[in-house]
Amino acid sequence: MKKQFWMVCISLLITTSVAAKELSFGEQVDESKLVKISTLLKSPKNYLDKKVTVSGAIVGVCSKRGCWAELASDAKFEKLRIKVRDGDMVFPMTAKGKTALATGNLKEIQLSLEQTKRYKMHLAKRNDETISLDEIIEPMSIYQLTPIGVKIFE
Q1: Residue 2: inside a domain, yes or no?
Q2: Residue 102, domain extent
Q3: In a domain, 4, yes or no
Q4: What is the pLDDT of residue 15?
Q5: Domain with 144 in it: what CATH number?
Q6: 14 in a domain, yes or no?
């Protein structure tokens, strides 16, 4: 009886420690569809509206609703935002610095010329740089992943 009690305790301890090592949201992550973020961003049109899985360190999380997270690319200075509708998944602030896998569809957000100028001005200000808005003459697109499943590792 005592031996069974300890076996149950050990089993619970192992199960708890394994479960505590990752957080899962939504559907199961499909690791067979893994694509490097740098590959995705190099030719995003090839992956639009296709199910892909990306992996990266979480470098940013929405502090208001936890509705997005930014994953660092395998290439320097690149990152990809994963974004859900508010409340569909809530990424905790404590996820920052941890590694995540996310399966979902890549979406293109086409900005107008005015939006492009505001976006580039925002980036320049954040990086303490100056830019000339007159040199921005074409609208741009940004890309983000709409995840259906996310796994965050402790």
Answers
A1: no
A2: 22-153
A3: no
A4: 42
A5: 2.40.50.140
A6: no
Share of the chain above pLDDT 70, in %: 87
Read off the pLDDT band of 20 (50, 70, 90): low
First to last CA, the chain: 35
Measured CA distances, 148 to 25, 68, 82, 151 (Å):
8, 13, 10, 11
Does residue 16 lie within any of the structural domains? no
Tokens 């107008």 sit at which residue?
Answer: 112
Amino acid at 51: K
pLDDT per position as a tens digit, 28-41: 999 999 999 999 99
- Distance from C-alpha of 113 to C-alpha of 116, rounded to nearest angstrom: 5
Instruction: Encode pLDDT of 113-132 as tens digits.
Output: 999 999 999 888 888 998 98
- Nearest Cα neighbor of 101 from 121, 124, 126, 71 is 71
**Number of domains present in the structure of the chain:** 1
Report whether 146 contacts 67 (CB < 8 A): no
